[in-house]
């Protein structure tokens, strides 16, 4: 009898263990989404739960795909998303939503053109909106509507989390409608420091590669290659910590390596744009490039009150290496705005300054030189960390 009871207890224990195991493995902790995925017509609004795409599958992005507050889109390594609807096809992450891109160095996630002959502007790009501070109203408590997707961004949550994005390549995206409305390869609107954003390339887009509109997101290992405007751009009080950036213009296209503002309509608005960038290479078109093509031939254009700290920098093939404009920006030269250990290669004018009233200003104190500086890791060459997942080198 005792033996039978023990055997019966053992059966109950085993059954309980199996039930617990099955429950744990079923993924019931994450509610399923009501969104129905169609790989050949990948568009619509993800309103709830988590949508997990299938690894190795190609999805045709035929229109806007929007992820709303409380919902998550997870993209596994090796997945490809092809935009086929022009700038009407783009991916937008709203405040409170999450995008997880789980690429690897050997198997990145690729967002690209789905057209037979691929070119810049074939689709819209990636837009992420968070709740971190912006400075459209001084003090940082404001919100605004994104240039594209018309989504709210901004707020007071500095550590806001919009997901985890690793090993992602974005190709042939972007469009500039006018001076105030543009698709970039990636547009980061008030994205917070709780977001992971690393190993991302913006390749041959029709506007900027990466643009930061306020926020506090930190980044590493970014490549902006052959985009038709600036390779990197920031405004509205962005203040992130960054390492390993590489930017290069394509022949006959592109403007600046970096175009940096505090805020166009309030040079002293707070919080002030104030990122730090360690290990950066910016390669231009050549210092004697055709002025009709390259009207903004500058490695770093710092203006409208921005601050920034750079270290270990390679600036190659620019007419002007560091160009600083406006009184509020110049006031920070050598302290809140400085570029330490710069290796200038074929740069005609190393530094240039202009006051708000357009008078020349000596801003040479902004930089210190070091001919052995390696920038993103390998001077003007492809850095080791770009191997396997990037293109263009």
Write up what this structure looks like.
The protein is mostly beta strands. It folds into 2 domains: 38-217; 235-393, no CATH class. Helix content is 7%, strand content 39%. It is built from 2 helices and 30 strands. The protein has helices at residues 2-25, 327-330; strands at 44-46, 50-52, 58-61, 65-67, 72-76, 80-83, 86-93, 98-102, 109-113, 123-129, 144-145, 152-153, 163-171, 175-178, 181-183, 186-189, 196-203, 210-213, 219-225, 232-235, 241-248, 258-260, 276-283, 298-302, 308-316, 320-325, 337-345, 349-354, 360-361, 367-369. Strands 2, 3, 5, 6, 8, 9, 13, 17, 19, 21, 23, 25, 27 and 30 form a 14-stranded parallel β-sheet that branches. It is globular. The protein starts with a helix and ends in a 24-residue tail after the last strand. Mean pLDDT is 91; it is low at 1-30.
Task: Give me some keywords for this one.
12-stranded mixed sheet; mainly beta; 14-stranded parallel sheet; 393 residues; 2 domains
The biggest sheet, with number of strands, parallel, antiparallel or mixed sense and barrel status, is: 14 strands, parallel
Strand percent estimate: 35-45%
Number of domains: 2
Share of helix, binned:
under 10%
Q: Whole-number average pLDDT? A: 91
- Distance from N terminus to C terminus (CA atoms, Å) equals 77 Å
Number of strands: 30
What shape does the CA trace take? globular
What would you report as the Rg, rounded to the nearest angstrom?
23 Å
